Amino acid sequence: MSEIIDTFIAPPCHDEIEILWQDEHLVLINKPAGLLSLSGKNPQNLDSVHHRLVNIFPGCTLVHRLDFGTSGLMVVARNKAINAAICHQFSQRTVSKVYTALLCGHLADDDGVIDAPIGKDPALFPLMSICAAHGKPARSRYRVVERFYQQGEDGALLPLTRVALIPETGRTHQLRIHCQHLGHPILGCDLYGGLTLPGTARTPRLMLHASELHFVHPVSAAPINACHASPF
């Protein structure tokens, strides 16, 4: 198999990382859309959450990542021991995350579960795909918040649904793929159909925001219930 080469070059991100809360062990931030979580191999992709924060908090490491286009809550560990402790919570699935998204079209049901395995597809890199034979189990829940219409760039009214998305597993691109699988891609998603509805081609960003993050502080054992409202 030939080597997969990632040719993506991130455009400059002029938005700042918002530090929401910090102590000597960890930092909670609001990541802007359009910023990599980790620097890429290409030197043009140096700017990232980690690259910026390590200058403020030497030795900090990422516990988890958000996609380039996704904004919202991230927890950053200030040392390796804290990272390991929070990663253990993620691996035990005791960390709860809620995302806010705008989906193309109006969903028929008010809530539901998407249970569809996800795997890498080298032929379609960097896309992932639903793959019953070789994919890893992936499960997401959704809840409709509102259905509405928004005027598109061509003047037509776009049917959109605001949803809360709760991933029960943590596969790459999981929410984006699952929403496409549902028949309602996330508005602005360039990889999984979110720019194909008439009037959506110039959507300024991926309409996906990590709005809630719930876990236990690894030192104090206090519950951390972080919330950050969606900007859209």
Automatic annotation (TrEMBL):
Q: Highest taxon of the source?
A: Bacteria
What CDD domains does its record include? PseudoU_synth_RluA_like
Record Pfam families: PseudoU_synth_2
Question: Mind telling me which InterPro entries this protein's record contains?
Answer: PsdUridine_synth_cat_dom_sf, PsdUridine_synth_RluA-like_CS, PsdUridine_synth_RsuA/RluA, RluA_PseudoU_synthase
Every copy of the Pseudouridine synthase RsuA/RluA-like domain together lies at 25-181
Record's family? Answer: Belongs to the pseudouridine synthase RluA family.
The name under which this protein is listed is: RNA pseudouridine synthase
- What species does this protein belong to? Phytobacter diazotrophicus
